[in-house]
Design brief:
This protein is an alpha/beta fold. The chain is built from 8 helices and 11 strands.
């Protein structure tokens, strides 16, 4: 990763793209702006930026399709932009692999703040770690130094938020966290975030690390309370 993080903005509204680019450049980031989904795929096929700010509704190929394509190849952080406010759209974005979700109209300063927060996690300065211990549980290994997770010695690709959620739970085995507490510790946002975000990330984690996601061994639901990690 370069010393100056590089951000790819994929946004077809010129005014939003220009303002977002200006604020990110002022914050010290290198920025590339593209307005078409097909152009974005061609750009990403040549190399991976440090973070992607991705509009949901794009000409050519939409943001969900780009996210799906990226997640088969990379764990690059994705912040999704959209004018849609429905919970189902947010949930779908997270299920596809987005790390964060910003609804238009938004404050450019807020977006810069979210970019910083996501990059801190991706670059190894996780807000929830506080320790550098490698955690090992039978076939599961979690390394906060490299931010790698292995299941039966096979590396599993996690997004920044998925890793932070897993590491937080695993560092506190058998401790039950409710969804609001997990939102506070992992997402750390001041504004409201739908608690279903946690449910989506837990489901995706189970699909990636559990032998049988429908009968999880490690990430357990404590009905009516929240979630815990069983070592």
């Amino acid at each position: 990763m370069s010393q100056q993080p590089h951000i790819l903005i994929v946004e077809d509204e010129p005014s939003i793209a220009e303002v977002t680019k200006l604020y990110l450049q002022r914050a010290g980031y290198g920025v590339t702006v593209l307005a078409d989904g097909q152009e974005a795929l061609a750009f990403l096929a040549r190399g991976t930026p440090d973070l992607v700010v991705l509009d949901l509704m794009l000409p050519g190929v939409d943001g969900l399709e780009i996210t799906r394509w990226l997640r088969t190849r990379s764990d690059v952080p994705i912040i999704m932009l959209t004018a849609r406010r429905e919970e189902t759209d947010r949930v779908l974005g997270f299920e596809m692999g987005a790390d964060d979700y910003v609804v238009k109209p938004f404050s450019p300063r807020e977006l810069v703040s979210r970019v910083r927060a996501v990059l801190r996690r991706t670059r190894g300065a996780s807000a929830v770690s506080g320790q550098d211990d490698v955690l090992t549980f039978e076939a599961l290994t979690i390394d906060p130094n490299t931010r790698q997770v292995q299941v039966k010695e096979r590396e599993v690709s996690l997004t920044a938020r998925e890793f932070d959620l897993l590491y937080l739970l695993a560092r506190h085995p058998r401790q039950v966290f409710n969804r609001d507490r997990l939102l506070d510790l992992v997402w750390g946002m001041n504004e409201y975030i739908d608690p279903s975000t946690v449910t989506v990330h837990v489901r995706r984690l189970r699909e990636k690390i559990e032998a049988d996601p429908s009968h999880p061994r490690h990430i357990l639901t404590v009905w009516g309370v929240g979630y815990k990690f069983e070592p």
